[in-house]
Write a sequence for this structure.
């Protein structure tokens, strides 16, 4: 049965109310990306008219585990889980895919190399495709994609053809007469610029400066020498000057960095970021307001029947006149003790996360705002015994957040009891992360309203890598 990537709105579109609201809540509790649905007309694509029919949703193994944990009482089989919504059967089935929404490093690398190859094939060798299946029929391209994915010890999944096709079509619109000679994900310009920002500007992770996954470059060796000559002025040559050089080269179509995101609509979208200096002033004028904040402190069972919290994350929803972002705050490692990360998703483009706010920059932002938050899991309770020593402090925090409108699902007394339970279980790492999230939300909500809105505005731009401190790139999503 064919499957197609879909966002939550697309999945629930055929579902009637009130089942739609119930199903949407279940999906949003797990993830905003990584979902698949049957092709239109396939079994399970329509909401059933009777008890014999089923409505199917496809997802990764880890997401299936979350669904089971969050919705106990359903019927399990080897790779499926069935629950009833409004007296209809909803079946969650593991895709068994390496592609789709999976975010592991191997899949990401293979996907990016595949994108670079298809863009080279289309923009440099003038190959044209009228539909995704044309890539499969292009024997040279299809065999190359299979080889690329095997390099990551993965089997190529044809579902990626849809993304590759949409990416190519969009880039043909943007660069109908390109002069690029290199389409680079590994080595070449990518390695050179990564080494440059690490050694000259002390930025250990390139993505904290520029999230480009592939680079389109004209005359690579000549271009590298030119940039090197311009930045070889010693320590007086700043990162902002490198950014200014790359903005010019971007506009002249000599160096174009491309940040790849999961395609979220019928057509790929293209946004130039940090390319035009005039937009920096508009960034400074943009202002987001906090719409809602929630942290689920109720209890549930995970797939192994172990007690945990209803979710592992907390959410801060912010909005501007034409934008709405859903910030997910959670542990960097969902299976172990780790520090927090902040990652927003834009409403209307749920399949494409905007990017993580660089943690070191978040810490600096807090210093700039005169507040302190310790994003070090070692500073927080990891056992019931340690927690009970500071439980009164957290009870005060929870009650204060509830009075300020933060949704916690349970009252402060119940929440404290729940922490004591989870910290005494094998899911203690989830409780520690929740304690960290509470401290962050307490810092945020203790700011005056105007200040905390401005703080979240700055967070939104950090996550998107927008502003003079970041390099120019195009976001293909």
């Amino acid at each position: 049965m064919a499957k197609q990537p879909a966002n939550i709105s697309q999945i629930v579109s055929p579902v009637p109310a009130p089942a739609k609201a119930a199903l949407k809540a279940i999906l949003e509790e797990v993830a905003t990306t990584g979902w698949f649905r049957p092709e239109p007309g396939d079994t399970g694509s329509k909401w059933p008219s009777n008890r014999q029919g089923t409505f199917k949703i496809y997802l990764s193994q880890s997401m299936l585990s979350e669904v089971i944990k969050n919705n106990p009482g359903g019927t399990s089989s080897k790779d499926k889980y069935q629950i009833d919504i409004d007296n209809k059967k909803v079946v969650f089935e593991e895709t068994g895919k390496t592609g789709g929404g999976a975010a592991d490093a191997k899949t990401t690398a293979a996907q990016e190399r595949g994108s670079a190859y298809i863009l080279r094939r289309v923009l440099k060798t003038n190959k044209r495709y009228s539909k995704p299946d044309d890539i499969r029929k292009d024997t040279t391209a299809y065999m190359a994609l299979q080889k690329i994915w095997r390099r990551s010890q993965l089997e190529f999944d044809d579902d990626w053809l849809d993304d590759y096709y949409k990416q190519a079509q969009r880039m043909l619109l943007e660069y109908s007469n390109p002069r690029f000679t290199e389409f680079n994900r590994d080595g070449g310009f990518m390695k050179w610029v990564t080494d440059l920002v690490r050694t000259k500007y002390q930025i250990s992770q390139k993505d904290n400066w520029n999230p480009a996954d592939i680079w389109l470059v004209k005359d690579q060796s000549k271009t590298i020498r030119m940039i090197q000559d311009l930045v070889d002025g010693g320590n007086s040559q700043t990162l902002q000057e490198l950014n200014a050089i790359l903005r010019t080269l971007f506009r002249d179509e000599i160096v174009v960095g491309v940040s790849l995101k999961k395609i979220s609509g019928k057509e790929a979208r293209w946004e130039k970021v940090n390319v035009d200096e005039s937009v920096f002033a508009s960034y400074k004028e943009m202002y987001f307001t906090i719409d809602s904040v929630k942290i689920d402190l109720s209890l549930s069972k995970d797939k192994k029947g172990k007690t945990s919290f209803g979710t592992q994350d907390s959410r801060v929803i912010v909005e501007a006149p034409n934008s709405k972002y859903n910030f997910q705050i959670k542990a960097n490692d969902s299976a172990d003790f780790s520090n927090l990360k902040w990652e927003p998703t834009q409403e209307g483009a749920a399949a494409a996360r905007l990017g993580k706010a660089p943690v070191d920059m978040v810490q600096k932002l807090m210093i700039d705002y005169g507040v302190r938050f310790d994003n070090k899991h070692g500073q927080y309770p990891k056992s019931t015994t340690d927690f009970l020593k500071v439980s009164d402090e957290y009870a005060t925090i929870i009650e204060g957040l509830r009075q300020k409108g933060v949704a916690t699902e349970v009252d402060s007394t119940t929440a404290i009891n729940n922490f004591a339970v989870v910290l005494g279980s094998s899911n203690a790492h989830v409780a520690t992360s929740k304690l960290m999230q509470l401290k962050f939300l307490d810092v945020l909500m203790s700011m005056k309203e105007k200040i905390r809105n401005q703080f979240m505005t700055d967070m939104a731009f950090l996550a998107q890598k927008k502003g003079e401190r970041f390099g120019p790139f195009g976001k293909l999503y």
Observations:
- Confidence is low (pLDDT under 50) at residues 97-103.
- The first strand starts at residue 3 and ends at 5.
- DSSP finds 17 helices and 17 strands in the chain.
- Residues 236 and 262 are 39 Å apart (CA to CA).
